[in-house]
Specification:
heterodimer, A: alpha/beta, Aconitase, domain 3, 5-stranded parallel β-sheet, 19 strands, 32% helix, B: alpha/beta, Aconitase, domain 4, 2 domains, 7-stranded mixed β-sheet, 9 helices, 7 strands
Chain lengths: 461, 204
């Protein structure tokens, strides 16, 4: 029987097995960020030290100031950022803090710096680590105790997850993006649909995505409950990586590429579960509720609790509508917004900013709108292309890179009761600040909402 | 880690699915160090109104559930962010056990690293437990890890747990110290992996 990509990487990084069936996996890349301090605390409290500084990388993202004019910063935010810098100096690992041109969100800057490579096992104390699977890495988020374990041992115990293959064929229509694709999938399988599984994304619609698009898809695997997402490396992956800071060079590059070409699931590999979709099922999507699975095409209407097939779900929908301040039956395009956010590890890459700029160009934001590049390199590239001017001319605020308003940990908050059209990944209650109401959508759709003042179909602008 | 052998306590029902870790502990509490405690952070936005007054409708504000040490809840509990603070909040508040039809993967792992026992339980059984709790508030549940049993009045069932995690929980063991005893095997692997995958073991 053939092997999947996941099984190949699992076997290559397996140090040993325990009698209970758990596998000790070697960690090739450990990325730490400015909300990882408890992991360092625990490592030290247990009397251990950092084993492999050469395989540990720091990127400040959660608490960094982005220069957002509405930020409500607290002094301990800078302490969190400084702590990462202090740990990097103390243990001697490379780290990119605020002000460094290569700083950025772990899941934007990691691939961009070539820290993430096909076939590597990569972990980080952040659930969106699933993102890195877009390059054919086995990448997953871990908690503080596991961070301490990885810091001290460069390994992690894991039980083999189940495997799901999601095949999406066809060609996405213009203005239908990777974000719409993954939101549509989460709507189909649910917020717990992937629990206990690694998802491999396959099919012509996935193959046709740029690396930026693939990163967006894998990023939100966690919103379907999956341990991670993966896409087989191909020419898109290889040309993306060539010449990046930490990517191999010369003979080692050639050897690496030859190996990466073997990281495909064999024809006779077996998955525990198969899901198929066709690109024609996917339109520009927007969420209406408080879970990423509460999603519909922008042409739809807010659903009624009666669509659910059980009482708990009816109650959940009723509560979500109440929290979101929406009435069943209203058209999604009639929902007025108070602000818009374009950025995050889901959609803070150059392609995302280009798509949003296309919509913003020559128009005016009707509400406060913020564009936050995912990294220093994205910011520099966007400025070289003049995107920052397009945004500022349209009345959008152009900020420094970071997680910002996606996770609202750095003081970039959505005020209570306000409604935000957001290119981020979670529309949970209170995610963007206490009482905030979030509608998830693509960067172009977020820009369309900003320039019209309400949720809007980007295809009609 | 605090060992877990058995526990008897009042159970509180929170029968909602997909309770995420942002809801369990809002982001504004995450700058705290572990030793500062997170008991007040647990479900902060559900427990109190924006002005800080307690919301009387929230289950943990209602006696006898305010003394609960076992939480019975909906499927996919702990989804979303990997923040281990979610587990610390539950543990610091006093919870020792969470019973739900399913748990999000990262939350599940984090719980067992901190002596918080999570018990995957069929939905029908969860419903029965919730009925008992609403009919007789203050109903106690007894959980015994060694025999892997849950008893609530005339209802009892057994649950599955990874044998290694069970051992660590029973004895309060740290996994890191255990792994470092296998350092020879790890170093041998590193040598081999470095030769076959030089692009991974020596980043530029």
């Amino acid at each position: 029987m053939g092997k999947t990509i996941f099984e190949k990487i699992w076997a290559e990084n397996s140090v040993m097995e325990r009698p209970d069936g758990a596998t000790l996996l070697f960690v090739d890349r450990h990325i730490v960020h400015d909300a990882t301090s408890q992991g360092f605390d625990k490592m030290e409290a247990e009397g251990h030290s950092l084993r492999r500084p050469d395989l540990t990388f720091g990127l400040a993202d959660h608490y960094v100031a982005t220069g957002n004019s509405a930020a409500q910063r607290k002094p301990n935010f800078d302490q969190m950022v400084n702590r990462l810098e202090a740990e990097s100096k103390r243990w001697g690992f490379d780290s990119f803090g605020p002000g460094k041109s290569k700083q950025g969100i772990v899941h934007v800057a990691g691939p961009e710096l070539g820290i993430t490579l096909p076939g590597c096992v990569l972990v980080c104390g952040d659930s969106h680590t699933a993102t890195h699977g877009a390059l054919g890495a086995l990448a997953f988020g871990i908690g503080a105790s596991e961070i301490a374990h990885v810091l001290a041992t460069q390994t992690i115990w894991q039980r083999k997850p189940k495997q799901m293959r999601v095949t999406i064929d066809g060609t996405l229509d213009q203005n239908v993006t990777a974000k719409d694709l993954i939101l549509a999938l989460i709507g189909k399988i649910g917020a717990g649909g992937g629990t206990g599984h690694v998802i491999e994304y396959a099919g012509s619609a996935i193959r046709g995505l740029s690396m930026e698009g693939r990163l967006t898809v894998c990023n939100m695997s966690i919103e379907a409950g999956a341990r991670t997402g993966m896409i087989a490396p191909d020419e898109t992956t290889i040309s993306y990586l060539e010449g990046r800071d930490y990517a191999p060079r010369g003979d080692v590059w050639d050897r690496a590429v030859a190996h990466w070409r073997t990281l495909i699931s064999d024809d006779d590999a077996v998955f525990d579960c198969e899901v198929s979709m066709h690109s024609s099922e996917i339109a520009p999507m927007v969420t209406w509720g408080t879970s990423p699975m509460d999603v519909l095409p922008i042409t739809g209407a807010v659903p009624a609790p009666s669509i659910a097939d059980n009482d708990d779900e009816r109650k959940r929908i009723a509560h979500a509508l109440d929290y979101m301040g929406l009435t069943a039956g209203m058209q999604l395009t009639d929902i007025a917004i108070d602000r818009a956010f374009i950025g995050s590890c889901t959609n803070g890459r150059i392609e995302d900013l280009r798509a949003a700029a296309t919509i913003a160009k020559g128009r005016k934001a009707q509400v406060p709108a913020f564009v936050t590049p995912g990294s220093g390199q994205v910011k520099a590239q966007a400025e070289a292309e003049g995107l920052d001017r397009i945004f500022t001319d349209a009345g959008f605020e152009w900020t420094d890179p970071g997680c910002s308003m996606c996770v609202a940990m750095n003081g970039d908050l959505v005020p209570p009761g306000e409604r935000c059209a957001s290119s981020s990944n979670r529309n949970f209650e209170g995610r963007q600040g206490r009482g905030s109401r979030t509608h998830l959508l693509s960067p172009a759709m977020a820009a369309a909402a900003a320039v019209t003042g309400h949720l809007a179909d980007v295809r009609k602008l | 880690m605090k060992p877990f052998k058995s526990h008897r306590g009042i159970a509180a029902p929170l029968p909602k699915s997909n309770i995420n870790t942002d809801l369990i502990v809002p982001a504004r509490y995450l700058t705290r160090a572990r030793k500062e405690g997170f008991d007040d952070a647990l479900f902060a936005d559900l427990r109190s109104e924006a002005d800080g007054t307690a919301d009387p409708n929230f289950v943990l504000n209602q006696p006898p559930f305010d003394a609960a040490t076992i939480l019975v809840t909906g499927d996919n509990f702990g989804c979303g962010s990997s923040r281990e603070h979610a587990v610390w909040s539950l543990a610091d508040y006093g919870f020792r056990v969470v019973i739900a039809p399913s748990f999000a993967d990262i939350f599940h792992g984090n719980s067992l690293q901190n002596g918080l026992l999570v018990i995957p339980t069929p939905q029908a059984t969860v419903n029965e437990l919730c009925t008992k709790m609403s009919e007789t508030p203050g109903t106690e549940i007894t959980v015994d890890l060694d025999s892997q049993t849950v008893v609530c009045g005339n209802l009892s069932y057994t649950f599955d747990i990874d044998p290694y995690r069970k051992e660590c929980l029973l004895n309060g063991l740290s996994e890191t110290a255990d792994t470092l005893r296998r350092l020879t095997e790890i170093k041998t692997f590193e040598g081999r992996h470095g030769k076959s995958h030089p692009w991974l073991t020596a980043p530029n």
